[in-house]
Specification:
This protein folds into 2 domains: 193 residues, Rossmann fold (3-Layer(aba) Sandwich), CATH 3.40.50; 210 residues, 3-Layer(aba) Sandwich (Rossmann fold). The chain has 18 helices and 14 strands. Helix 3 packs across helix 18, helix 10 crosses helix 13 and helix 11 packs across helix 16. Strand 8, helix 11 and strand 9 form a beta-alpha-beta unit. Helices cover 45% and strands 14% of the residues. The protein starts with a helix and ends with a helix. With 450 residues, it is an alpha/beta fold. It has a 7-stranded parallel β-sheet with strand order 3-2-1-4-5-6-7, sandwiched between helices. A 7-stranded parallel β-sheet has the order 10-11-9-8-12-13-14, with helices on both faces. The chain is globular, with a radius of gyration of 23 Å.
């Protein structure tokens, strides 16, 4: 063990008690953090006879929801090309694991990847015996990669992205970062900028393969669910705050509440469905705000934020029609984002109003929903830049600007249709990353997975 790796391993060991406390703390709001506890420390359940070494294993690591959903086209391509092999997913969060269940069911095996100690990683590799490892986006664990190399397991970093901020953070440990990057068999980067930042940190064998998230097909059942949602909402104009993060909902609700009190957002959609959205006094009904928080453990917290401001709330879980007097619909469900995008007139992409780096705007563009996006976009920097440039998205500066631009779009049907077309064309233009990625790894799979 090198000195750098020894120091890193000591740091990991020192943090393990904190990790246990952190899991217990998170479990207060999301009890799933207590499930499968042993896997996080390198202790795994006995595999079923159908799973136990009867088929070679392609191991794919996806930290949470975003990476798991991004892997969907790749998993489909792998299963089609290698039908005699089994896919093993590893995750770090309960929501990522739940997304895997929803997307893939029993067609894949799944578990939590243990914390990065040498012995836990050796137990993982010995127990599951993967023939190849595919890591989605940015997870670089020194002990894991070192043990994979010792075990003869080639590892690829796929759909790789590295923001300038993350590059600076990795740059604080240049020797360790270089060692980790050079232990990878190859890297498939999302963009030339990502590839350049990885190269400056010492990475080798980099290919720009594109962003696999553009290849995620719009599920027909989600589109049908979107029509159901829209029928429940009625003819009102509807806007969506999608995948919001902590602190953003309060800003949005305050701006929204202020605009309603000053009667700034009471315009129906001219020439569209909103023209019929009138109450008994023949006055325009306010647009409906739908909020879908990024993390399910925050559903109740966001509900309280709504009611504390005197706004009338309904929940998606109620499975009922939305009353004309309801101000906010809380999307308290998982795995339905495509349906929400299909159901609304305008979508704000969460994680961009505060400094979280933005959530995925590609899905909204793919279904033709006009997008509003805040100033923090480092997680989707290139996609955001191109969506803004082609007119599929508008930039907003703060919550008040968000409400103003939302109201402008809700009252301009022609402009919304123009943005919708631009979004669909933008998404279609960038498809193909899955095929490039499969080409990158196929020679290694052919020679390693037998």
């Amino acid at each position: 063990m090198t000195l750098r790796r020894f120091i890193y391993t000591l740091a990991v060991l020192a943090l393990l008690p904190w990790a246990a406390i952190h899991l217990l703390w998170r479990a207060r709001r999301q009890k799933e953090y207590l499930h499968h506890w042993g896997e996080r420390w390198g202790f795994f359940p006995q595999r079923k006879p159908s799973q136990q070494y009867l088929a070679p294993t392609i191991w794919l690591h996806a930290v949470s929801v975003g990476e798991t959903r991004a892997a969907q086209p790749l998993v489909a391509a792998l299963c089609a090309r290698y039908p005699d092999h089994r896919v093993l997913f590893t995750h770090m969060t309960p929501t990522g694991r739940a997304a895997s269940v929803a997307l893939f069911g029993d067609t894949v095996e799944r578990l939590y990847l243990p914390y990065d100690t040498p012995w836990a990683m050796r137990r993982f590799l010995c127990h599951y015996q993967p023939r190849i490892g595919l890591i989605m986006e940015t997870e670089l664990w020194p002990n894991l990669l070192t043990e994979c190399r010792a075990a003869g397991v080639p590892v690829y970093l796929l759909n790789a992205r590295l923001s300038a901020r993350s590059a600076r953070r990795y740059g604080r440990w240049p020797n360790l970062t270089r060692q980790v990057l050079q232990s990878l068999s190859a890297i498939g980067a999302q963009s030339a900028d990502d590839a350049a930042r990885l190269t400056r940190l010492g990475a080798e064998k980099i290919t720009v393969t594109g962003n696999i998230k553009f290849d995620i097909a719009t599920p027909p059942e989600q589109m049908e669910l979107g029509r159901v949602f829209r029928a429940r909402m009625g003819a009102r104009p509807v806007w969506l705050a999608a995948s919001t993060r902590e602190g953003e909902e309060a800003l949005i609700l305050d701006a929204w509440h202020s605009a309603m009190n000053s009667k700034k957002v009471l315009s129906p959609l001219p020439g569209g469905a909103g023209d019929t959205a009138m109450n008994s006094q023949n006055k325009a009904v306010s647009p409906l705000l739908v909020i879908v928080p990024r993390h399910p453990q925050r559903f109740d917290e966001v509900a309280r934020l709504v009611t504390d401001r005197g706004l009338r709330l309904q929940r998606r879980s109620e499975e009922s029609a939305i009353a004309p007097t309801t101000h906010v619909l809380l999307g308290d469900s998982m795995g339905e984002m495509f349906a929400w995008y299909a159901a609304v007139d305008v979508a704000f992409i969460g994680g961009s109003l505060k400094d979280y780096g933005c959530q995925n705007l590609i899905e909204a563009c793919a279904v033709g929903t006009p997008v509003l996006i805040g100033p923090s976009t480092y997680n989707f920097a290139e996609a955001a830049r191109e969506a803004l440039a082609c007119g599929a998205a508008h930039a907003i500066t703060d919550a008040d600007d968000l409400v103003r631009q939302m109201d402008m779009l809700l009252t301009d049907v022609a402009y919304r249709e123009q943005m919708s077309r631009a979004g669909r064309e933008f998404a279609a233009r960038h498809r193909g990353a899955t095929a490039h990625t499969l080409e990158l790894i196929s020679s290694s799979i052919s020679s390693t997975v037998r």
